[in-house]
Amino acid sequence: MDDNQAPSSRRQEGSHKDRRGSGGSGGPRAKTPDEWKEILEPDRYEVCINHGTEPPFSGRYNGYSPDGGYMCACCRAELFSSDAKFDSGSGWPSFWRPASEDNIEYVQDTSYGMTRTGVNCGRCGAHLGHVFDDGPAPTNLRYCINSLSLIHESDCREE
Ligand SMILES: [Zn+2]
Questions:
Q1: Sequence-ordered alpha helix ranges (H) in the chain
Q2: pLDDT tens column, 91-127
Q3: Is residue 152, in this structure, part of any structural domain at all?
Q4: How many domains does the chain have?
Q5: 110 within 8 A of 156, measured Cβ to Cβ
Q6: Which of 18, 73, 97, 139 is found 20 to 30 A from 31 (Cα to Cα)?
């Protein structure tokens, strides 16, 4: 991993190619990894953009129970709700369904010699976690999500 790049290569000129606003294809997904690196804290960048995994029981939202929605830490799309959160004992926030399938993207992940289903934000493409089929009824799904990929709505208000 080479995250010790010289900061001199950041931002060459002032031409902004920001294409948000029209809501068409592209949107926040048009950000490059370098652009995300300037916006996100290093640990969020590692999880959301580099598809890392936070250590179990380390995240803010494991064992967190206030009501409300959980947004994408990168683009604020609504991803999950406290209504579908449960304590899986895994050490990561777990949900048995997303708030809206439209905001979730499923990808096959064959890293670490396993075949798993990765879960990304459907709007910006940020890595969220994985989904497993050992969850509770009625879906029997367990969305195992990094706290660093999420922001609970009560934390959004403080920004
Ligand atoms: Zn997003």
A1: 33-39, 42-48, 153-156
A2: 999 999 999 999 999 999 998 899 999 999 999 999 9
A3: yes
A4: 1
A5: no
A6: 97
CATH of the domain at 91: 2.170.150.20
Ligand 1 centroid, distance to 158 Cα (angstroms): 19
Picking from 33, 140, 118, 123, the residue whose alpha carbon sits closest to that of residue 73 is 123
In a domain, 118, yes or no: yes
Give the pLDDT confidence of 43-55 residue by residue, as tens digits. Answer: 999 999 999 999 9
Tell how strand 69-72 and strand 78-81 pair up. antiparallel
- Asked if residue 8 is part of any domain, the answer here is no
Catalytic site residue from 72, 124, 144, 156:
144
User: Is 121 noted as a catalytic residue in this protein?
Assistant: no
- How many angstroms does the Cα of residue 89 sit away from the middle of ligand 1? 26
What is the whole-number distance in angstroms between the Cα of residue 126 and the centre of ligand 1?
5
- Domain of residue 136 covers 24-57+66-156
